[in-house]
Design goal:
By secondary structure, the chain is mostly helical. It has three domains: 207 residues, no CATH class; 127 residues, no CATH class; 141 residues, no CATH class. The protein is built from 30 helices and no strands. Helix 4 packs antiparallel against helix 5 and helix 23 runs antiparallel to helix 30. The longest helix is centred in the first third of the chain and has 15 residues. The relative contact order is 0.10.
Length: 608
């Protein structure tokens, strides 16, 4: 029987920020997707070029020796019933008869577990040896103890880069389990694409139970249901939980045995509460039913369905369905992150998710602009998202600077909440950078600067220095973001900022001091006096502060970033302490990650 395994691949999100570069020749002011006016109704779309399937050549003719012994059941195996045999997939029959090799990849094609990851050091990753001599229990604690929600966009971007780096495992830790811990944290952060790439860097024959679960979570997050199929083929029936059985049945369908796969799913429907809920099995049947000759139409009815879970959401996206709003309106933010990066989701749903994903650090400014460009190009999209896409286009090409500025501000003001507003500032970063500094827009200078810094456009932001009065919010951001600042900040500037600070508990002032002190940009006496006024002690020590300080002392970037990730957990900047911020900025600056340290400090003041 000929069997083909359907595999899918996704695009990885950019792991580093893109910095502005000078152009050698004139270019269109519009980002991709906005170059042309909208096509008139009725204009046929240009079909996209398809790709031809790649067919594996049939191996040369060879026959088994006549002396080959017939296959027999392994010793002690339970003899299945005829009904059970009929519902088995070819892989399951191979397992039953002992024909399935444990690991059938040629030795020359197997990948080493010496270093596992996506980014090599010369590609922007951390040094491979960073954690090789570190205590395995400490590394595991930094991974397992992080819930994945970071207050800082730039902190998120930096942690993603560290987790995706090609690294040696700590001594005493299984490299596959080390990859599993990193992938699991990436999933918790909303970085499903990066997590999927990471688990794919390990051959299925080297999977441990921990990595198998991390891989399942990564494939569920990306709605890549069949991505786990190579792993199910190798691990087989060694895992027997319901999630695994459903995935094996789906994989059987896509391997060419749709009848057996659907039969196994039918059996799961009959198990009732002991298996998957009926709606989830029906979604799995609909997905599996699209493969092979055993095509089956499955009607999905949402009546009586309560709640949402990762597999239910993944299967819904995979089969092109959008669950009723009553099931999705109050979901955790992770589902918005899934939608933002799901290529099969409707553009409106992706835009809704992007209003949280960009601010969190999952989507870049360029990715946001590309998404809105797609929305603008679709004639069948109307309403708020179409209006926002039109407004973004005006932010680039409106004739007057005041009109472009008005469009930018309109996008910010149209956000649903502060998280979405910061995501809109990520969206407008390059439009803001094209706006020439002017006293006419001085009142918007802090937000324009925050928008540019959200995409790392520090040189563009610094052009607004003349519009930033000493002690203002705009000045505070630039004092932290400037790559090279010769003069230290004195007491009078800090006092002026304090007097203009409307934040709760003078949080912005606390963060300004923490950032300046961490970067070494404030006079010692001024820092002590200002700390006394704010009632804080930046020198206070905890077990965490001693660990991150020691990691910086030995110049270990990877460990510093992992520890910084622990110290930046929270749903908002009100969960961040000035002491933690000081130690994070200081440690990052000391190990050569000064650009990230500056961006985190400036973001803290902007959003605090």
């Amino acid at each position: 029987m000929k069997r083909a395994l359907l595999t899918t691949a996704g695009l990885a999100l950019a792991m580093t920020s893109v910095w502005a570069v000078a152009q050698d020749s004139p270019e269109s002011l519009l980002p991709p997707g906005f170059e042309k006016p909208k096509p008139k109704p009725g204009t046929p779309a240009v079909p996209s070029a398809g790709s031809s399937p790649v067919v594996q050549p049939i191996p040369g003719n060879s026959s088994a020796p006549s002396s080959a012994r017939p296959a027999t059941l392994p010793s002690g195996a339970k003899i299945p019933t005829l009904k059970e045999i009929e519902s088995m997939s070819p892989d399951q029959l191979d397992e039953l008869l002992g024909l399935k090799p444990k690991f059938d990849m040629p030795s020359a094609a197997r990948r080493s577990l010496k270093q596992v990851g996506i980014l090599a050091e010369d590609e922007g990753g951390m040094p491979a040896w960073s954690l090789a001599r570190q205590d395995a229990a400490l590394v595991k604690a930094t991974l397992d103890g992080n819930k994945g929600r970071l207050v800082s966009r730039w902190g998120h971007i930096l942690l993603r880069r560290a987790l995706a780096s090609r690294l040696d495992a700590p001594a005493g830790m299984n490299p596959a389990d080390f990859a599993a811990g990193r992938a699991a944290l990436l999933v918790r952060m909303g970085e499903g694409e990066a997590a999927r790439q990471l688990v794919q860097d390990v051959d299925a024959g080297n999977y441990t139970p921990t990595l198998t679960q991390a891989a399942m979570d990564a494939y569920a997050f990306t709605a890549d249901i069949t991505g786990i199929c190579p792993v199910t083929s190798v691990i087989g029936s060694n895992r027997k939980d319901t999630d695994w059985r459903v995935l094996r049945a789906i994989c059987a369908s896509f391997q060419g045995d749709g009848a057996a796969g659907l039969a196994q799913l039918d059996q799961l429907v009959g198990e009732g509460e002991s298996g998957w809920p009926r709606i989830d099995v029906l979604l799995a049947q609909r997905y599996a039913g699209a493969a092979g000759k055993a095509r089956r139409t499955v009607k999905i009815e949402w009546d009586g369905v309560e709640g949402m879970n990762p597999w239910r959401y993944a299967l819904s996206l995979a089969v092109g369905l959008e669950p009723p709003e009553v099931l999705t309106k109050d979901l955790p933010v992770r589902y918005l992150f899934v939608a933002a990066t799901a290529p099969m989701a409707k553009l409106e749903l992706r835009a809704k998710g992007a209003d949280r994903a960009a601010g969190a650090g999952i989507l870049s400014s360029a990715a946001m602009v590309d998404l809105y460009g797609q929305i603008y190009a679709q004639d069948d999209i109307n309403g708020p998202w179409a209006d926002a896409a039109e407004t973004l286009r005006n932010a680039y090409i409106a004739e007057s600077a005041s009109d472009r500025h008005a469009a930018i501000v309109a996008l910010w003001d149209g956000a649903a909440d502060p998280h979405a507003r910061y995501s809109r500032q990520v969206l407008t970063a390059y439009a803001a950078a094209r706006l020439a500094p002017s006293s006419d827009f001085a009142s918007s200078a802090p937000d324009l600067i925050a928008s540019m810094l959200a995409a790392g456009l520090d040189q563009n932001a610094l052009k607004w220095g003349p519009q930033a009065d000493i002690g203002s919010l705009a000045w505070g951001q630039l004092a932290l973001a400037a790559p090279n600042r010769a003069a230290s900040v004195d007491s009078s500037a800090l006092d002026t900022f304090y007097g203009n600070d409307p934040s709760d508990g003078y949080r912005k002032s606390r963060f300004l001091l923490a950032g300046l002190a961490g970067l070494g940009r404030v006079e010692g006496d001024a820092a002590r006096d200002f700390a006394g006024k704010l009632g804080i002690n930046l020198e206070r020590q905890t077990k965490w502060t001693r660990l991150i300080t020691r990691a910086a002392d030995v110049n270990n970037r990877e460990l510093v970033v992992l520890l910084a990730g622990l110290g930046m957990q929270g749903d908002g900047w009100d969960k961040m302490t000035s002491v933690n911020l000081y130690h994070i900025v200081s440690a990052l600056n000391r190990v050569g990650l000064s650009a990230e340290a500056r961006m985190i400090a400036a973001e803290a003041v902007a959003r605090g």
